[in-house]
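Appendix B. Chain record.
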Amino acid sequence: MNRTAADLVTSVALVAAAALLAIATPAQAQAQTAEQLKAEFARSVYLGSATRVHDERPQPLLRAVVVLRIKLDDHNRWQAEVFRDNPDQPEMTRAALDSVARLPAAVGLSAQAQQALRSDGLIEAWLFQSDGRFALKTLAKPQKGA
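Structure tokens predicted for this chain:
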């Protein structure tokens, strides 16, 4: 499958995942665990950055790894702070921060989930390939061996 076809397949899969998230019932939103919240956040980033995401096994030697702490502000907007980056690759840090900044406000979260995301937040790692595309650690396939 060429890259364009693979990108299309990935985009269609991400849209389908978003549709499933959009129809979650209030009971499902109340039952969100920390890992479920993290996976839903990662899927949201994938949807908002579909052209920058890959669904391959990450290469053995990554171009960059950027780790962000993500929290919700008082208006349910996502806020990111750099936890770890690669100083020699500032464009990768900007790409990770931009992927969070493009996200819409969080909806459908229980009061408990909102509180947890406001106080503790979550930690996520962006794994960048040589070509600048990324996968998030939460949803990434196992990394290829050297």
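Further analysis of this model is presented in Appendix C.
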